[in-house]
Amino acid sequence: MKSLTIASLLLCAFASQAAHAQAKPEKLVTREELRACMNSEAELAERRKAFDGRIAKNKEEADAIRAERAQLAEEEKTLEENQTKMDRFARKVKAHNVKVQAVKANQDAFNADLDALNKSMVGYNEKCGGITYSSADKEAILKEREAQKK
After folding, report:
1. How far is CA 102 from CA 14, 30, 47, 94, 109, in A?
2. Cβ–Cβ under 8 Å, residues 107 and 58
3. Inter-axis angle of helices 135-149 and 31-78, nearest 10
């Protein structure tokens, strides 16, 4: 029984080595391909950075909506059967609901943009993840970028 287990392990090890030996060898990318990957990486980093500000703004808006909702709930408790107060309160609720819808639309747009960013990142990883490149090409591209900044 023990020899059968060892034989199974050896067979798995040889099969794994054979599969690894048959794996597609890595291709050295051209300078243009490396530049495209580096540009994609920089663009994705900028897009991701922009989301940080949007996240903070969305949180502030949501906090304001919650505070206003709580205030409206308290005001509603104090209303009597006074029609003038009820009308004023109904206008406040309507204005509040408009704000809620605007925040929801903003959040939906944010989620769509975030989904697009995530898809772009997956595409970048598929195209540029694990590439092999010349360090001289990378240095040349970085020097080009520095020259463009000046």
Report:
1. 61, 47, 23, 13, 11
2. yes
3. 60
Give the span between the Cα atoms of 1 and 56, in whole angstroms.
63
pLDDT band at 26 (very low <50, low <70, confident <90, very high): low
How many CB atoms are located within 10 Å of the residue 34 CB? 20
Residues recorded for the chain: 150
DSSP-assigned states of every residue in the chain: -HHHHHHHHHHHHHHHHHHHHTSPPPPBPPHHHHHHHHHHHHHHHHHHHHHHHHHHHHHHHHHHHHHHHHHHHHHHHH--S-HHHHHHHHHHHHHHHHHHHHHHHHHHHHHHHHHHHHHHHHHHHHHHTT-B--HHHHHHHHHHHHHHH-
Any bridge partners for residue 28, and if so which? 132
Cα–Cα distance for residue pair 22/18, rounded to 1 Å: 6
Judge if pTM exceeds 0.70: no
| pLDDT confidence bin for 25, thresholds 50/70/90 | very low
